[in-house]
Amino acid sequence: MPRRRSTPSAAPRPARHGRHGRLGRSEVVRPPLPPLDGRLDRFEITVGSAVEYLRGTWPELRDVRFEISAMPTHDNEAGLARWRVDVPGKRISLYRIPIERLLPKGHDDAAHRRMAVEGAVFQAAARYIGREPWELDPDGPRY
Fold this sequence. Notes:
Elements lengths: L38 H19 L7 E5 L13 E4 L4 E5 H6 L8 H20 L14
Parallel strand pairs: 1-3
Antiparallel strand pairs: 2-3
């Protein structure tokens, strides 16, 4: 039986190249996207969930277009507008900055911000329908 000679080149070398000489290519599947955690993203998600609830409850709101804008372009005689209702145009515009930033002191956390956004959506939808905001919940108030 012939004897194999061991040579220094027979030791495994670290691979600089892959099987076909191509190592270091990008993956086929990209890494997962970062979670939506910006202020605008949270605002849009909160508005979307409130609108989805209201459209499922009130048929009058199914054809209404809800829009999000940063600031109102007009002045309100009572102060800075937080929403605008356009009944003939079937449109409700919500203004993000006044809703989020004009919270009372001590209430500027995530829970109060979410309640302010949902409250603005309910108040604007109630004005569009011609009802009071607490009438929009078919089960009545939960407190």
